[in-house]
Every structure is written in structure tokens, then in C-alpha cells.
Amino acid sequence: MDRPERRHPVLRGDPMSERGCELGCTVPDLHFATCVDYGLVVDAAVEDGAMERPERSCKGCAPAPARDGVMVCDRCYRRMRGHIDNAADLVGRLRSLADPRKAMVYDALRSSSGKGAEAPAPTPADLIDASEDVMRSLRSWAVFVDPRSGIVGGMPAGAGSLAAYDYARSCANVILGDFDRIANHADDVKQLAEAVLVRHPVDEDGVRPFWSIVDAVSRYRLERPDAAHVVDADADEALEVSAVAEWRDRLITKDEAARAKYAGSERTLKRWREREGLVPRAITQGPMGRVTWFRESEVLEIRERMRDRVGRPRKAVTA
């Protein structure tokens, strides 16, 4: 078989002069000069079917450039932040699936061909392990980032899904608040990626040694995904079908509502409650104490209304 000719692509900049992703990411189809696939270009003969497509031994060995100010590439940076931000939804879902108050029938008559058939466990062991590992990772990193953040002890074993969400949300906020500093330290970002992005396969006994956030999301999904997958019917790739949960109006805590994205300060949020009719939608009592919740859509609506009001000229006062 004739192999396609080798051409040396013209690269903009020197990839060796840039800092590469510490997690080992590479640029697809970009190779070092010592790589056997360096300069291999599939030409029109392969595209037309006149020549067989060569098998590449390397999909890309040149490191992906790190994002400015951190030691990981832009893709890893966004993936890690996104998974940490969604971790509270994940923990709440895991707790709701493991809720011991769910009614199940265990005393119904069952027929079995074997002897000694036992009733199934009320909660699968994998579900408990996933919930504990994810929550332990969030708490450990929150305490590491800010020992004075108020996140002390652990979450009670019998905490409900809403209390679990509250606790996990507080931990995630602490981590995200100092995420850039973590991502700019090689050892720290590798250890955080181990708890967030790295997949841990099961062993020969079917036991997973550790559940990362990605492991738990892949197994149990999220109640509120960031976006639905858009399928291109004209694409040649195989279609992958998965369930998509319905959207809901997100609840945010009082501390979140006071951030720059929403009210901007606690004083402004208090004024909105007193003068603009902003009403709390829930008040919970959990491991983090008393927490007040608002609907995100209502906070954003008041923010837009206040911005429009600021731009209007004042009415002239007539004597």
C-alpha cells in the first residue's frame, strides 16, 4: 500500500516554548519531529477512496498549551470548574436516591429456585460509596483552601438531599473562590483532578477503589444538566442517546444572591427585599446553619429592572 506523502506543517509559534498542560493533554494530530507520524498528511487520494487510510500510531504527542495564569489547558480548566460547580446537584441527587424513607416492599412473597435467597439491600453500596467519596473530596478541598471557612466536621449521615446540597454548595463555593491559585500549582491541580476528572475503573471483583465526581456523574447523572446535547442528523458519527432531565428554576443562597453577578452586595440585596418585593422561597436548617434561598430568575429580573431604572432621566419637578 502506498503511504501518503509526509509534509511538514507550518506551525505558528513554538509549542516547546509554551507551558504545557500538567494533566498530560495533547493537541490532536500535532506531533514532535521525532514522532513516526510527524508530517503525515492524508491527501485527496485517501478522501476519494483511491488509497486506504493509514493507521496512525499516535493521535498527537505535542502538549496542549496551558491557559494563561494556570498550569492546565483551557479544556481541563473549564471541565474542572464545571464539575465542581455541579457537584452540589450531584450530591443532592445521590442523597435523594439513597433516601431511607422511600417506601419499598421487602416482605412480599418471592419465589426463587435457589436456597437462602436474601432480600436486597435498602441502598446499593455503590450509591453510598459515591456519595461519601464525593462529599469527602469537596469538604477536604474546602478546608485545605480556607481552614477558617466554617466548614468543620462532616455532614450528618442522615442528612436529607436539601441539607446535603446546602453543605456541598458551600464547599464548592470555597473551592471555586480560590480555583485559579490551585490550578497554578502543579501538585495541587493534579490532586484536584484526581478527585474531579480522573476515571477510576472497577477492579476484578467489581469494586471501584474511589469515586471521583466524573465517575459519579457518569453513573448517576445530574438532575439539572448544564445543557442538552444537540444531535446533528447529518453527521457521520454514531448517535449516542441519553436521557435529559427537565429544567427547573434554580435556587440560590443568600450569599450567592449578594455576589456581583446578582445584587452585588448584601446591602443591595436587603434593599431589594424591603423595596422591590424580593421574597425568600425557602429557609433550611442544616450543617451550615440557617440558610435563606431565593429563586435565581426573580433576582435576575429585579437586577435588570434596576439597571433600566438607573438609565432613565429624572422627571423635572415643577413648582
Described by strand count, sense and barrel closure, the largest sheet is: 3 strands, antiparallel
- Report the structural category: mainly alpha
Ends apart, CA distance between termini: 95 Å
Strand order of the largest sheet: 1-3-2
Number of domains: 3
| Helical content class | 25-40%
SS field, number of helical segments? 10
Shape: globular
Low-confidence residue ranges: 1-17, 103-112, 225-229, 241-247
Order of helices and strands: HHHHHHHEHHEEH
Number of strands: 3
Based on CA atoms alone, the radius of gyration comes out at 26 Å
Percent strand? under 5%
Please state the average pLDDT score: 73
Protein model, in words:
The protein is mainly α and 319 residues long. The chain has three domains: 17-65, no CATH class; 74-99 and 124-220; 251-310. The chain contains ten helices and three strands, in the order αααααααβααββα. The chain has helices spanning 44-47, 74-97, 125-145, 161-177, 179-183, 186-196, 213-220, 254-257, 266-275, 296-310; strands at residues 251-253, 282-286, 289-295. Strands 1-3-2 form a three-stranded antiparallel sheet. Strand 2 (282-286) and strand 3 form a beta hairpin. The longest helix is centred in the N-terminal third of the chain and has 24 residues, at 74-97. It is globular and about 65 Å long. It starts with 43 loop residues before the first helix and ends in a 9-residue tail after the last helix.
Give the topology.
Elements: H1 44-47, H2 74-97, H3 125-145, H4 161-177, H5 179-183, H6 186-196, H7 213-220, E1 251-253, H8 254-257, H9 266-275, E2 282-286, E3 289-295, H10 296-310
Antiparallel strand pairs: 1-3, 2-3
Helix pairs in contact: 2-3, 2-4, 2-7, 3-4
